[in-house]
Amino acid sequence: MLYTLTMHPAVDLFFNPALRADAAVRAGGKGVNVSRFLRALGRPSRCVVLCGGARGRFLCASLAEEGLDVLPLDDPDGLCRINLKCTGAQELALDGRGRASAGAAERILGLLDGLLRPGDLLAACGSLPDGADAGFYAAAVRLAREKGAQSIVDTSGEALRLSPDAAPTLLRCNRAEAAAFSDAADACGAAREAAARGAAAVLVSDGANGAYLCTQGEVFFSPARKTTPRTTVGAGDALTAAYIDGALRGLRGQALLSHCTAFAAEVIATPLPGAARDGR
Predict the structure, then answer these.
(1) Which of 56, 160, 175, 213 lies at a CB distance of 3.0 to 4.6 Å from 257, suitable for a disulfide?
(2) Cβ atoms 240, 38 nearer than 8 A
(3) Which pLDDT value is given to residue 233?
(4) What is the dihedral angle through the alpha carbons of 177, 75, 1, 139, rounded to the nearest 10 degrees?
(5) Strands of the 170-174 sheet, one edge to the other
(6) Pairing of strands 10-16, 81-86
(7) What pLDDT sits at residue 17?
(8) What is the spatial distance between Cα 259 and Cα 185, in angstroms, rounded to a whole number?
């Protein structure tokens, strides 16, 4: 079974200043997006989501209406954030902060302990809400390993810095985020460093420059596919979903990385909700 974990979901409000009537509201969060992309790739998954307060309940109900398999953990005293995303000619994101109540993270770990089975995969994605310890993802990785499951971590900041030592199956981030654990001058060096610290595979994206995959002592590079980008939102989540899909197909090394970058190129060529069709 494929599980995605979203600890810091959001109610995303998309708007285009040039198209005031076309604002759109959508449930968001990195793990949620990975599940959406997995579905597009023909891979069912189950979304484990920390649902803070009334907004969180609205978010999880919205995901269920989309047809995603949602397993919410209700956090009545928590707070689900709201993000504002401008989809005009120049993208702008104003991301809010959510809050987890005391004990919520431990409850999530308890839920995962009961869910995970040998051969499962847990993709823990996104930032952590206020109130959650930065070592949470590292703890989730260790739990997955104890249960015989694989794990992916896609996060940033202190949570990312602590993750390589827990030895996830895959660590995914972008070049800027990699500064949390590496002083390397480039994405390739950062990927090597995270692998040396324990991650079985490391996928570091570098925007228009492409992406690097370090695994089993080898480093592979794929240039960014030529496309007309309509947005960069979701590109990293697309890489994560495509990595899962490709690995399950038996792809390895260069073929796996090329599969990831090809799918990400498709995603960034798709307009966001509320965006003009001509890209205005």
Answers:
(1) 213
(2) no
(3) 72
(4) 50
(5) 69-75, 46-52, 2-6, 121-125, 150-154, 170-174, 201-205, 211-215, 218-222
(6) parallel
(7) 72
(8) 26
Rounded distance between C-alpha atoms, residue 11 and residue 147, angstroms: 32
Q: Which helix (H) or strand (E) segment is 123 a member of?
A: strand 121-125
The per-residue pLDDT for 276 is 38
pLDDT the model gives residue 123: 98
Each residue's pLDDT tens digit, 112-153: 999 999 999 999 999 999 999 999 999 999 999 999 999 999
Give which of 157, 177, 163, 176 is closest to 124, Cα–Cα: 163
Instruction: Residue count of the chain, please give it.
Output: 280
pTM for the model stands at 0.92
Q: How far apart are CA 91 and CA 107, in angstroms?
A: 36
| Amino acid occupying residue 131 | G
Cα distances (Å, whole numbers) of residue 227 to 155, 201, 210, 265, 266 = 26, 27, 13, 6, 8
pLDDT at 229: 63
Q: What's residue 277's pLDDT?
A: 38
Nearest to 43 by CA among 3, 6, 89, 95: 3
- In terms of phi and psi (left: phi > 0; alpha: psi -120 to 50; beta: otherwise), the region of 183 is alpha
Q: What are the residue ranges in the chain where pLDDT is below 50?
A: 274-280
> What's the pLDDT score for residue 221?
97
Give the tokens for residue 10: 């959001």
Query: What CA–CA distance (Å, rounded) separates 14 from 71?
Result: 25
80: closest CA among 63, 60, 66, 65?
60
* Helix, strand, coil fractions of the chain, as percent rounded to 5: 35, 30, 35
